[in-house]
Write a structure and sequence with these properties.
mainly alpha, three-stranded antiparallel sheet, 7% strand
Length: 525
Amino acid sequence: MRYGYLLLSLVFLTIISCKKAPPEVKATNLYETQLFKDVQLAAIYKDSKTFVDLVPKASFRQLEQQYLTEKDNADFDLKIFVEENFMDKSMASLDFRTDSTKTMYEHINTMWDKLTRGPDDIIANSSRIALPYKYVVPGGRFQEIYYWDSYFTLEGLLAGDRGDLAKGMVDNFTFLIDSIGFIPNGTRDYYRTRSQPPFYSLMVEALVGKDSSMLLSYLPTLRKEYDFFMDHDSIQTPFSGSRHVVEMPNGRLLNRYYDSGDTPRPEAYKEDKHLAIDMKTDASKTQLYKDLRSGAESGWDFSSRWYARPEDFSSTQTTNILPIDLNCLLLSLEQLLAKGLQFEGDEAGANHFKTLAAERQNLIQRYFWNDEIGFFMDFDIKNQRQTNELTLAGAYALFFGVATPQQAERVKKVLMDKFLKDGGLVTTLNHSGQQWDAPNGWAPLQWIAVKGLLDYGHTQEAKDIMKRWLVLNEKVYKDTGKMMEKYNVEDLTLLSGGGEYETQDGFGWTNGVALGFQKLLQELE
C-alpha cells in the first residue's frame, strides 16, 4: 500500500515538473511585446496605424503571455488571435453622401459636426488620450486630435463663427500641457515621445484677439510650452545639441525637431524596420529611428528636406537640421510671453523674453538667410552650413515678420518664380516620391505663405495663390465630393500621392484654410 502511494506521488511530481512554466513577459508596454512586432511585420492590416488604434480586451501582459503560449500550436492563426482579443473602437468613417446642391463652402460648414469628437470617455487599455472638451479631428485615418493641424482648423472655425468649438480646441491643448507637460503629436499614447510644430501660442492669439486679460489665463501654459522646447542639459560644444536645443558658437540657442524615442514608430513599425534593414550597425539603425521620429514631429513626414544624400530616404537626418519654421515659431512664442508678462506688470520677465526674442531674430538672420538665393534656408549643424534644399518653410520668415522689406521682396520672387504652380504653391522643388515634396501642395503652407505676403504688402501675389488653390479645391470637390489632405498642384487632373499611407479625405486643415481664404478674398475685393 505504501509502495503504491509512493509510485503515484512520483508520477504526479513527474507530470508537474514536465509542465511548461508560463512564458515570462519582459515588455513594459504593448509596443515592446513579441505580439506587437509579429502583427506589424506580418502586415495583417494594410495601414500599420490600424493595429495600434485597436483596443486590447485585456492588459498587454496577459495578451503577450497568452500569445507566447499559443503561437507555436499547429492550428494557431495570428489574424484570428488579434480579432478575438482586440476591439475596433474608432469612430465611424466619413461614409456619407455629399449633397451635390451645396457649394464647397457650404459642404465644409456641414463637415465640422461630422469631424467633431469628444468629450472622451476613458477606455481601459486604449491608446487614446482622453480629452475633456469637444474637438475637431482631421478625418480619414486620423481619428484623434493632431497638434499643428488644429491651428489651421481653428482659423476656419473662427471664420465660420464656430468660436465655441475653437475655444474647446485650445482648452484641450491647455489640458494636455498641464497634465502631460507638453502637447503630443496627437492624442495617442504612442505619440508621447514627441510634440509637433508649436502653434499653441498662435491658437491662443487667434482665440483671444485683442483681449489681453483673456491672454493672461493662458500665460502659465504658454510658459510650460516654451520650457518643454527649451529644456536641455549642459551644452559646451558649439553646434552640439541636447533634446530640442542646439548651442551656437556665440553661446546662444536655436532649436531642432527632436523625438526622445529611438525605436521604430509603433504606428509605422514595419515601414521603419524595412527602411533600416541595410544599416550596418545597431547604432546607425537607432539613429535613423530617432531621425524618422523627429521628422514626424516636424509635421513634414517625410521630405527630401531632411535627407543627407539626394534621393536617399534612409539618409534622413532631422536631428542634424536647424529648421527655419520651428525657430520662427519659438520666436513668436517668446514675443507673446513678453507681451503677456508686460500686461501682467512683470517688467523683468517681459524684458527677459524681449531679449531672448531679439537674440533669436538675429540668429535667424545670421544662420538662415541666404543672400545669394534670396530665400530663408534650413541650417545643417553637422556640416555647419545651410542646406541646399529650397522648401516652402522659408515663407515662415514672412509670416512671423522676421524678414526685412528687401528680403520679403526677394522671397516673394522665389515663391512666384519657382514654387507657384497651376494649383498653388508646391512644397519643395524635389520630386522624391515623399508626400511633403513636389508635386504636392498642402493647405497649411499655402496659409503661411499667403498671410506672410499680405503682411508685406504683396497683395496681388497673395490673391493669385489663394485663387489657384481654391480653384483646385473646388475642382477636386466637384469630381469627388471630398476635401483632401493634400493636392497635386502641378497636374490638376491628378490627385496627390506619395508617403506611407493613401491620401485622406475629411479634411480639417484643408477645410479651415479654404474658409479662411474665402473670407480674406472677400475682404480684399
